[in-house]
């Protein structure tokens, strides 16, 4: 019997979108059900499925779980029996993992900028903290601007970068488009090449 899985996430989570894009690209949509998760709800089972209460979280058929997004994608690639998204061995694997983590770091910093206003609405926001996070975003974008991934290839790097840029377009933590024209062109080309980018766009955007 073929195992099926449950992905705990939300349509607007950039890390959840990253996994949903991988699911689509790997042809696993019919084996995974996406169910809403609320990290702020103490009664949500997410906190039992991932003690950190973070999403995305993949629930396996036996009730065990896998997290975070990068590990989920590696697991799903193994389920699909391919190395389309990430090389299994050799130096190229570690180059790709490093670049994928850089894209994750842009998303992490972007989320922290949002959280500064969302979770501290009644106190003055910290300009130093916001500058610190935006500095991470800009340095990460500058690195990709200097050496963008192949826009005609769908892998863990391009998936992560496209989700990071999509999240910046939505939340506008930095006005990235005027400063990084190569990435603007890259995202346009990649989104035309990979239909999962549009298929996973949140309706709220």
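^ structure tokens above, recovered residues below v
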């Amino acid at each position: 019997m073929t195992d099926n899985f449950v992905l705990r996430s939300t349509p607007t989570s950039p890390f959840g979108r990253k996994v949903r894009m991988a699911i689509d690209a790997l042809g696993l949509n019919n084996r995974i059900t996406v169910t809403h998760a609320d990290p702020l709800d103490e009664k949500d089972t997410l906190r039992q499925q991932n003690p950190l209460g973070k999403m995305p979280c993949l629930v396996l058929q036996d009730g065990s779980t896998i997290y975070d997004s990068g590990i989920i994608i590696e697991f799903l690639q193994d389920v699909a029996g391919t190395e389309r998204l990430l090389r299994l061995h050799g130096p190229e694997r570690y180059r790709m993992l490093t670049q994928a983590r850089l894209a994750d770091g842009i998303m992490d910093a972007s989320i922290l900028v949002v959280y500064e206003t969302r979770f501290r609405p009644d106190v003055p926001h910290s300009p130093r903290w916001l500058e610190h996070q935006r500095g991470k975003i800009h340095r990460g974008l500058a690195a990709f601007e200097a050496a963008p991934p192949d826009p005609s290839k769908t892998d863990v790097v391009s998936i992560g970068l496209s989700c990071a840029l999509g999240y910046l377009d939505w939340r506008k933590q930095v006005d990235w488009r005027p400063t990084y024209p190569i990435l603007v062109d890259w995202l346009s080309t990649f989104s035309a090449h990979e239909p999962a980018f549009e298929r996973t766009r949140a309706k709220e955007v």
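The radius of gyration is 17 Å.
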